[in-house]
Amino acid sequence: MTTTPLRKDAARNWDRIVAVARELIDQGTPLQLNDVARRTGLGVGTVYRHFATPEALLETVATPRLEALTAHGRQALADTDAWRALESFLTRTVEAQVTDASLAPVAAASVDALPRTTELKEDLWSTGTTLLDRARAAGAVRPDLAAADLVPLMCGIAYAVDVHGSPPADRINTAHRYLAALLGGLRATPTTA
Known about the structure:
Helix content is about 75%, strand content about 0%. By secondary structure, the protein is mainly α. It has helices spanning about 10-25, 35-40, 45-50, 55-80, 80-100, 105-110, 115-135, 145-165, 170-185. The longest helix is centred in the middle third of the chain and has 25 residues, at about 55-80. The chain starts with 7 loop residues before the first helix and ends in a 7-residue tail after the last helix. Pfam families: TetR_C_43, TetR_N. GO terms for molecular function: DNA-binding transcription factor activity; transcription cis-regulatory region binding. It comes from Streptomyces telluris. Keywords: DNA-binding, Transcription, Transcription regulation. InterPro entries: Homeodomain-like_sf, HTH-type_TetR-like_transc_reg, HTH_TetR, Tet_transcr_reg_TetR-rel_C_sf, TetR_SbtR-like_C.
């Protein structure tokens, strides 16, 4: 899909809107387009012309991280070690979840405001499923682990980090610790005869 490039002033306004939205999300403040307009010094109509809904703005803020995760997923798919590929993908995913407040609500939404968001989420889901299937086929993960289990497990780690109240500098270390415990439970255990 091609889009017409924005005029310079419109592009500056778009950038300002997204930057303010990012600040609000990082502060834990719910996105309200009127509030974004006030904080940017732009007219409400200008904000609404760029983003019809708060969800569209939230998804726009999350898009760069979703794109980075998608790119990492492609790299993981190229890894010939099925366990290492899955572990790398899940590690990058949980790191993103604990450092980017825009991801959880976008991932949890059952309906997306932007087609690009749907495309990225479907790509991530497909990548995770493929990586899990490969790891299962290699005998590296428990056979009873379903692809549908991955999202709640990753969200659970992110939620646990939030509940733990780790300082921002420790959030990734805490997430890594929790993920290591989870990954230990996902590994297939050799059967004894």
